[in-house]
Write a structure and sequence with these properties.
6 helices, about 180 residues, two-stranded antiparallel ribbon, mainly alpha, about 10% strand, 4 strands
Length: about 180
């Protein structure tokens, strides 16, 4: 059995090669991609926290649902995280407590209530047209071939930074503006 002995990738090279021809991505490329994915996801979370105001939206919009809401907030994807086309879309995200996030998918009688509550929240917030566009994207089940590519992640980060800036501008009137990092 052959044990692969990869030669170290030269600066700027994406792959390192074994003499047998097998290739493997250089660890520096993988680390950079993971770093960009984390940055994009962090920005995505910040936007949702800023937009939803640090409160469980199910508790805020549907106080009549008698649940033991927790104080731990989580960002929930309405359409599954596995749909990479909607993964970084803040329209597909809602701030909920950990109780609501757990109950949404545990198969209990409350899971239907939570799911319908979240559907209503997303539809009211984004509008029916946007909601049905997201439904269509989710139903197509197309893979996002750009997902792990550096240029795609940089574009996502740029769009999220602009969205965060615009959201911040809309939330804080001129007299109440907090210091905000300028966009490049």
């Amino acid at each position: 059995m052959h044990t692969h002995k990869f030669k170290k990738a030269k600066d700027g090279e994406i792959f390192k090669f074994c003499p047998c021809g097998k290739r493997k991505k250089a660890s520096s490329v993988v680390r950079e991609r993971k770093k960009l994915q984390r940055k994009a996801e962090d920005l995505w979370r910040e936007i949702v926290h800023l937009r939803d105001g640090e409160v469980c939206m199910v508790k805020k919009v549907f106080p009549e649902l008698k649940l033991n809401h927790s104080n731990t907030l989580q960002v929930d994807h309405f359409f599954p995280r596995s749909d990479r086309n909607l993964f970084f879309d803040p329209s597909n995200a809602t701030l909920v407590c950990s109780t609501c996030n757990y109950l949404k998918s545990n198969g209990s009688p409350q899971s239907t209530q939570i799911h319908l509550a979240l559907q209503t929240i997303v539809t009211r917030r984004e509008g029916e047209k946007k909601f049905y566009e997201m439904c269509e994207i989710n139903n197509q089940r197309k893979s996002n071939i750009e997902w792990g590519r550096e240029h795609y992640l940089r574009e996502v980060i740029e769009k999220l930074e602009i969205s965060k800036y615009l959201l911040h501008e809309a939330i804080y009137p001129e007299s109440e503006k907090k210091e905000f990092v300028n966009l490049p």
